[in-house]
Amino acid sequence: MNPRSLFEPAAPAAAAQVVRLASLDDAGAFRDAARRLLLQQVPPEGVQWLEPQAADLFIPAAGSAADAAEAMRLDAANGPALKLPAAFVELCQHAALHADPGRHALLYRLAWRLLHEPGLRADPLDADWMQVQRMARAVRRDMHKMTAFVRFRPLPAPTDDDWRITHVAWFEPVHHTLRATAPFFARRFAQMPWAILTPEASARWDGRRLAFGPGARRDEAPGPDAAEQLWLTYYESIFNPARLKLTMMRKEMPRRYWKNLPEAALIQPLAARAAERGARMVAQGGTEPVRRRPLASLALRIEPPPPVTDAAAAPATLAELGQALSRCRACPIGQHATQAVAGEGAPGARLMLVGEQPGDQEDLQGRPFVGPAGQLLDRALAQLGWPRQALYLTNAVKHFKFEPRGKRRMHKTAGQREAAACGPWLEHEIALVRPAALVALGATAARALLGRPVAVTEARGQWLPRFDGLPVLVTLHPAALLRGDAELEDAFAAWAADLARATEHLAA
């Protein structure tokens, strides 16, 4: 330090620039003013930010707001770009609306530091950064609460001015958020001319344009109407004491908003009676839900199958059973198949072979086991010496379930519900044919006949008893041989050996 400087008179301090914004919620005017000052290299201590209508006898009067705003816009349009982080610019949009009178000084100080302290951009724990973020969060929360807690009330008659307002709401925001939140209501109530009154400012919408004006008093807003009483009745009726959480409710609906919410008057009495109402609900017990099958469309409307337990309505012959099957819509498969495929064979057949479902050829011809799997079955029957006409052949599922791939219809395994819907038809076939034994070809058939899941690869070749005493021989479906990885001839020989165990029932 130069010793002589101690005796030299200090240089006069530069007069602080005064910025008086036109309104409390004009974030755009603050942005333009801050940009102009940053371009002029004015440090934070050289700026004094004033709220609208604020006065200080020791500060020289500033120019008119219109002149200052115009100068700011010209500077912003012609000046160089300021390289501020995008996150800071976004935070400014909300933090500038905070109710803290020192918000503008804080934002300008942080903008100055970001331009002159490069390391600050990577310091999330900086005090200024954290304070601006807290302000922005508080403003966003206040905007959200405004969208949730504004309650419009109808006027007895529309206003006589050009706006023709029909509904008015009174709200008391914590921060300067009316201008930023009003566009939400313009979109939400686009066809309703409305006004929102706050102590600080007001907003009006006539269906085409949005305008802002001065603040208002609480008594200038309309009082309750008949529709509000209806709303209170509904609010009280849906109150669930079992889900009452007062701490969480106060967090989502702070008490500061209660005085302007009609339903707030019901909260205390409803909460006081919650324990008593909850005890009554427990004492009443539960109600049995009504099970309904959802309908995807009218095209998939489900008609219940005829009750096979009703002897008077049940088909008396296999021919009548086939006709009834063609009308069945107990599951969606029947809507897409060509036709229902009933069993084939004579009543009194000693052995009934049950497969999974019709295939593509069976669906087209209306007969069971006529496709590739049926041809393999015919080969086994010939080898065993079983005349086909001495058997009864059918399937657990009576319609072809498929998945279209180009021009082909690829087999798709029926679900448990679809197989269960066909269960009464299969049981009625068994009752009409009255076989001495059953052969389950595949897992779907085994489950339909035995009423439980069966591991076919483990149970194949074994006789398992049914609930009615009929023996069921479990083995593979012939289609499984065609899809298997093993040598077809070896697999066919093992499968034919399984079938051979039923010969004694056929010959009896």
UniProtKB/TrEMBL annotation:
SMART domains hit by this protein: UDG, UreE_C
Origin superkingdom: Bacteria
Domain Uracil-DNA glycosylase-like per the UniProt entry, residue ranges: 342-499
Name of this chain's protein: Type-4 uracil-DNA glycosylase
Xref: NCBIfam families: SAM_7_link_chp, UDG_fam4, UDG_fam_dom
Annotated keywords: 4Fe-4S, DNA damage, DNA repair, Hydrolase, Iron, Iron-sulfur, Metal-binding
Pfam families linked: DUF4130, UDG
InterPro entries reported in the protein's UniProt record: DNA_repair_put, DUF4130, UDG_Type-4/5, Ura-DNA_glyco_family4, Uracil-DNA_glycosylase-like, Uracil-DNA_glycosylase-like_sf
A biological process from GO: DNA repair
Stretches assigned to coiled coil: none
Family named by the database record: Belongs to the uracil-DNA glycosylase (UDG) superfamily. Type 4 (UDGa) family.
MF (Gene Ontology): 4 iron, 4 sulfur cluster binding; deaminated base DNA N-glycosylase activity; metal ion binding
